[in-house]
Automatic annotation (TrEMBL):
Coiled coil: none annotated. It comes from the Bacteria. It holds the Pfam family OsmC. It comes from Moraxella caviae. The lineage of its organism: Bacteria, Pseudomonadati, Pseudomonadota, Gammaproteobacteria, Moraxellales. This is Osmotically inducible protein OsmC.
Amino acid sequence: MSASVAWLKNDVINFETTSGSGHKVVIDSAQTLGAKPMELILMGLGGCASYDVVSILQKSRQAIDDVRCEVSAKRADAIPAVFTDIHLHFVVTGKNIKEAQVAKAIDLSAEKYCSASKMLADGGVNITHDYQIIESAQ
């Protein structure tokens, strides 16, 4: 994997980043053009965990219509203001979703599959999870 970061050289300090696969994201501490760097970490964690949860639920033949992950975090008061606690709240929508399957999918993601979660947890971040299941109207 690789990425490049290029300063946009405008009135605020922001950067255009490009992933090795060619996708671009703007990083901006003033939040005028893009997300803050630490927000991107939360977004990456939520995306990594959500990918796992959807994949596992599909493989277990759960009739999911939607999966959302709402990520919240607390940071240390001192510099560097690292994350101390991160909470992932999954909202799974579908027909006759089995609660045990959702719990298992989230546990497997956290403990085995999600590289971002494992890396942050091993670095001392307290990561917690919970979920809500919504029965689909369709």
